[in-house]
Design goal:
single chain; 385 residues; alpha/beta; eight-stranded parallel β-barrel; globular
Length: 385
């Protein structure tokens, strides 16, 4: 039986994974936040054959790094909407924290993104870290700080559950749109989710019709939320074997390995490129995360080995402008030639590409012979924390 393909994702926020990556970028610093720059990077990833791009985000400027480090970004969901409209087969996953953002608003934004992309949306659910950064974020939101692993985990669990339920609050055939009969919605196919948590309640239903995928693909770090609430676990490990253990432990339908990447370029070795940037700021290695610094052939061998242990990878290039070119020319074509990975097919949803079933609404009810209809949706409401 043939082995399933290795799914390929890449993080495209900023200029790269290294805090000083902007020093080696192929554009002027002022171009970082321009539409042209965002579209160019997304097009490079799509043309290379990546399955998915992720876009990091934070309410606060990046911590640490050199004084001249980039300290601004456009919101990930807004950039994801632009990327979705400027691509055709690429999955698009903004990173959004579950700690202080309202899940009702997240649900609406991500459902809209799935409609805009015709079923290519995903969400990387994260949680803020405890400490001063979390307190600063709470102050920016006007919320009490959420401190401690247990409280952060509870917020994440509740937020992901609410977002999923709000996507399900519209059944697939809730929208009628009959001009002849002036009927727009089937009242019986919109549902209040009636969620009550420790810090907020949500009545519902959502204000956006059910997404094309039913639910956009949800990714999260292993252990952040129960595996039943996500589609893809992001796992760390220092070797393919350890990553395989983490993937099995995650319990999620799919597991993607996090891999930091610095590649040899025509003019410099990967080690020289890293050393050049290390003069300005350290490239902090996340605990127990796999890092490849070396040749394209070496990365191909590593990813081929990883394909026996995990379902996909999320690559974090040292410098986007330099490494994505090598990935496009030397790494992905070789993976495709070896049939280790495949390109996403035109017209397919991200769930289809990833081999994930389209879920039915958990509120789905049998069709009545004469459903009641209304001309507007019931008012949706989220109570404050």
């Amino acid at each position: 039986m043939p082995q399933p393909p290795l799914y390929l994702a890449v993080e495209i926020d900023g200029d790269g994974d290294h805090p000083a990556a902007w020093r080696r970028a192929a554009h002027a610093p002022g171009d970082l936040l321009t539409p042209r720059r965002v579209a160019r990077v997304a097009a490079a990833a799509e043309n290379a054959g990546f399955t998915l791009v992720t876009l990091d985000d934070s309410l606060l400027p990046p911590a640490g790094g050199e004084p001249a480090n980039i300290v601004g970004r456009i919101g990930a969901v807004e950039r994801a909407a632009f990327v979705a409209a400027s691509t055709s087969v690429l999955g698009v996953a903004p990173i959004a924290s579950t700690t202080y953002a309202e899940p009702f608003h997240l649900s609406s934004q991500l459902a809209t993104l799935d409609h805009v992309s015709a079923g290519r949306a995903a969400w990387v659910a994260t949680a803020d870290e405890s400490g001063q950064a979390s307190r600063d974020a709470a102050r920016a939101w006007g919320r009490p700080p959420v401190e401690g692993a247990e409280a952060l985990g509870r917020e994440a669990r509740d937020a992901v559950r609410v977002v999923r339920d709000l996507w399900d609050s519209w059944e697939d055939d809730a929208v009628i749109r009959s001009v002849a009969t002036s009927r727009y919605l089937d009242r019986d196919r919109l549902h209040y989710i009636d969620f009550t948590g420790d810090t907020y309640t949500v009545k519902g239903p959502g204000i956006v019709p059910r997404p094309p995928q039913g639910r956009p693909v949800v990714l999260a770090r292993e252990g952040l939320v129960p595996p039943a609430l996500i589609d893809v676990a992001l796992v760390d490990g220092t070797s393919p074997a350890r990553l395989g253990e983490a993937a099995a432990r995650s319990g999620a339908p799919l597991a993607f390995a996090e891999v930091e990447v610095a590649l040899d370029t025509p003019g410099e070795s990967a080690e020289e490129r890293v050393a050049d940037l290390e003069r300005h700021a350290p490239w902090h290695n996340a605990p127990h995360r796999l890092r490849h610094v070396g040749s394209a052939a070496g990365l191909v061998a590593l990813l081929t080995e990883l394909s026996h242990h995990v379902d996909g990878v999320r690559l974090r290039p040292l410098v986007l402008d330099e490494d994505i070119s090598v990935l496009s020319r030397l790494v992905l074509p070789e993976l495709f030639a070896r049939r280790v990975a495949t390109r996403p097919l035109p017209g397919a949803t991200l769930r289809t590409t990833l081999g994930l079933p389209r879920p039915a609404s958990r509120f789905a009810t049998p069709r009545a012979d004469a459903p009641a209809v209304v001309t507007a949706a019931p008012a949706a409401r989220e109570e404050t924390r």
